[in-house]
Amino acid sequence: MKVLVVNCGSSSVKYTLFEMDNEKKIAWGIVECIGLLESYYRRQTAVTEEKKKSVKVASHTEAVELIINDLLDKEIGSIANIDEIDVIGHRIVHGGNRFSKSVLVTKEVKKGLKECFSIAPLHTPAHYAGILAVEKMLPGIPSVLVFDTAFHQTIPDYAYMYALPYEYYEKYHIRKYGFHGTSHNYVSQRAAAMIGKPLNELKLITAHLGNGSSITAVEKGKVIDTSMGFTPLQGVVMGSRCGDIDPAIIAYIIKIHPNYRNSEALNTLMNKESGLLGISGISGDMRSTVKAATEGNKKAKLAFEMLCYSIKKYISSYYGILNGIDGLVFTAGIGENSTAVREKICVNMHAMGIEMDTEKNNKPSSKERFVSTADSKVKIMIIPTNEELMIARESRACICMRT
Ligand code: ADP
């Protein structure tokens, strides 16, 4: 069985074609900078090196057309006929209160997704355009939507509610939804395999640390709480997002600052101009921040320390909520690669049984591995995430349930 995973971001379309019999990638790539003067297309297959070229791509529809034509190309393609694809899995960032698990695309589902536009305005319209483009290019092949919010559906009401008047929940569906669910789900399963115990016997904290970051408490395979909220802005300090702040600051800024009288300007401030970037004034990228801090830049050092401290605070609070943990997982760009961030977080946590082996932590590797000491009560793990594979598995499961 072959599954095509499609991930339409605000200005990019990523894809991976999987052979599910062995869960191996056949072809994968990305079209970036859609709608700009110059777009880029990078593609690779299991048997060819990565190739990059400039392209002119004005919309998500054009990007999907480019990708499918490429997959079907007689010389460089990976399939001879569209019927070789059994199902398409679409990554969807926000399911709102409408979607609690993966669904097969129908007219009704598309209508429901349209109603989620306002809740994730950067992403959902792009997802929707991608779904329509795939339908046009691959008629008759079923599509499945896999939601980043779905894994967090088990969070209890006392954890997902905000203490605003109840009608804000009833009327406007304002509650914690949580994000990166597909990643947290994948690394939880891998952590159980690494520890060698069933997931339903384990208590885990998973830290997905990328440009956007979230920490999740997982008990017996079910999410108990997660750091992101109604949107992916809540929680820890991120690349260019502020994470948790006193909400009264917003009302205060509106009052005192002439530039911030509308929600768009405030959203830009909190999502795109804050976090590492806002504090350091240099970059939202962790590598640049660490480099600048090492070279003596005080604001970069402060930004780094703030980010690590905020993560440590969430880990400690979830440790308490779970009444101890078996494993702590680091994943995504920073979690998988930044020795400095992992060390800063794990230092002085031995009271919780979290003891890092700094030598193991410093060893570069792209494989899943333990970086805790032999005596550490809590296993510290680095697990490269694989959201695409998880989406492919979900899509296959959806199709198998139907037949
Ligand atoms: P996104 O949330 O956009 O998917 P990623 O998971 O790719 O983000 O993570 C991007 C972050 O990972 C950036 O801050 C980048 O600096 C950081 N990162 C990537 N590689 C390294 C590395 N070798 N060392 C430190 N940080 C890294």
Automatic annotation (TrEMBL):
Annotated substrate binding sites: R91
Going by the record, the broad EC class of this enzyme is: transferase
Q: Which GO terms describe its molecular function?
A: acetate kinase activity; ATP binding; magnesium ion binding
Reaction catalysed? acetate + ATP = acetyl phosphate + ADP
UniProt cofactor(s):
Mg(2+); Mn(2+)
Task: For this UniProt record, give its keywords in alphabetical order, as a comma-separated list.
Answer: ATP-binding, Cytoplasm, Kinase, Magnesium, Metal-binding, Nucleotide-binding, Transferase
- Residues bound to Mg(2+) are N7, E387
Which residues are listed for ATP binding in this entry? Answer: K14, H208, L209, G210, N211, G212, D285, M286, R287, G333, I334, G335, E336, N337
Q: Tell me which residues are marked as the site Transition state stabilizer.
A: H180, R241
Which example biological process does GO assign this protein?
Answer: acetate metabolic process
Q: How is its cofactor bound, per UniProt?
A: Mg(2+). Can also accept Mn(2+).
**Annotated pathway:** Metabolic intermediate biosynthesis; acetyl-CoA biosynthesis; acetyl-CoA from acetate: step 1/2
Known Pfam families for this protein? Acetate_kinase
Q: Where is the signal peptide?
A: none
Q: GO CC annotation: what is one?
A: cytoplasm
The EC number(s) given in the record are 2.7.2.1
Active site (record annotation) = D148
The primary site where this protein sits is cytoplasm
Compartments (UniProt record): Cytoplasm
Matching entries from Gene3D superfamilies are given as: 3.30.420.40
Q: What does this protein do?
A: Catalyzes the formation of acetyl phosphate from acetate and ATP. Can also catalyze the reverse reaction.
Similarity remark: Belongs to the acetokinase family.
Subunit composition and interactions: Homodimer.
Question: Protein name, please?
Answer: Acetate kinase
